[in-house]
Automatic annotation (TrEMBL):
Pfam families according to UniProt: APH (PF01636)
Protein name (Swiss-Prot/TrEMBL): Aminoglycoside phosphotransferase domain-containing protein
Signal peptide residues on this chain, from the entry's feature table: none
Origin: domain of life: Bacteria
All copies of domain Aminoglycoside phosphotransferase, residue ranges: 219-275
InterPro entries xref list: Aminoglycoside_PTrfase, Kinase-like_dom_sf
Organism encoding this protein: Rubrobacter taiwanensis
Amino acid sequence: MSMDWSSFFPPGTPVLALPDWRNPRLYLPAQRPLQRWEQSSLYPASRPEARLYRLLLRLGAAARLKEVRTAAASGWPLGEFVRGTLPRPASVVVLMGTPGPAQKITAQLRDGKGRVLGYLKYAGTEAARRRLRQEWRVLSNLPGDIGPEPVKLGPLGDGLALLQSAVGGRALPAALPPPEGSTRLLDSLVLSPPMPLDEHPWVCRMRGSGPTEPEPWLRTLAEREWPVVIQHGDFAPWNLLRGTGGALRAIDWEYGALEGFPYLDLAFYILQTSALIYRRAPLDAARYAVEHLSGQPDLALSRSEALALTRLAAYDAYLKSAEDGHAPDTRLQAWRRSVWRG
C-alpha cells in the first residue's frame, strides 16, 4: 500500500499495532486503557480460535503490553480529506484488509465520546481502486436503510479514498444457515419485474466472460423469468449487521452489481461460510446450498435450479477474484472450481 500508517492518525498520536509491528493488522491509539479495549474489537475474527486469539490481543492492548510508536509530527492527510464532510474525528482505528492484489485499508473514525462517525476506505493498487469506484456506484443507488451512505470519493495520497457513513447494528455470528431476514433483505433489492433469461443483463454479461462456458447451467434456468436485482457480491456474515429493529443491513459493497441475478447472494453466503468457517469440502458445501435453496418455500426453486444457481454463484465469485488478480491455484479459487465442476 502506498500510504504510510502514520498518515491516518493526527500528528503526535501514540499508536499500537496488533498483533505487532512486524505483521500489523490493526493500528489503534494508545492513550487510554478503556479506549484501547473498545477500539481493538475491530480486529477481525470469525472462527472460535481466532476469537480467542483476538481476546488475548485485546487484553494485551488494554494493558499496553505492546510497543508504542508516534504518528508523524506534521500533516494529517486523512483529516484534510474528511474536512467539510463529517465532524472532525477525535480518534482513528486503522484496519489492514486481506492481503492480495486488491487489498484496502479501512479507517474507523470516532468522535470525542467514542461514537463512530464513519469509515474511510483507502485503495493504493489499481485493482483496489476499481473496487472502491464500484462500491461508490452501488452505494449511490441503494434503497434507503440497506447500507452505508456514500459521502465522498476522491484522491488521497497516491491512492483513492471512499468515505461513507457508519451503519448501526451488531455483528452476526459466522454461522449457517443464513440468518433470519436474509431473504427479506435481498427481496428489497429487486429492481425489475421478471424477464426472459436471454434478455437478463447479468446473463448477457456472464456468457463468454470467463474460462468456462456456463450455458448448461443457464439452460436449467431458462424455463422461467427472473428479475434484475442489486447484487451484493460478498454477502457473508462479516458483512451483515442486525439493526435495533431486527432488520439486516449490509456493508462492504465493493463487489456489488446494479444489474445482478437473484439468489446468487444467498448461494454465495452458504458457499463462503462453508469454505472459510466450517472448512467443508466443496461438494458437501454445494449439497448444503442446494438443500437450503430448494427447501425455502418463498423461493420456489427446484433442486435443478438450486444446483444451477449454486454453480453460478461459485463461478461468479471465481471470476471476481480472478479480476482482482488472484491466481487460479489459490486454495479458495480451486475450491470454487470444484463446486461448479462436481
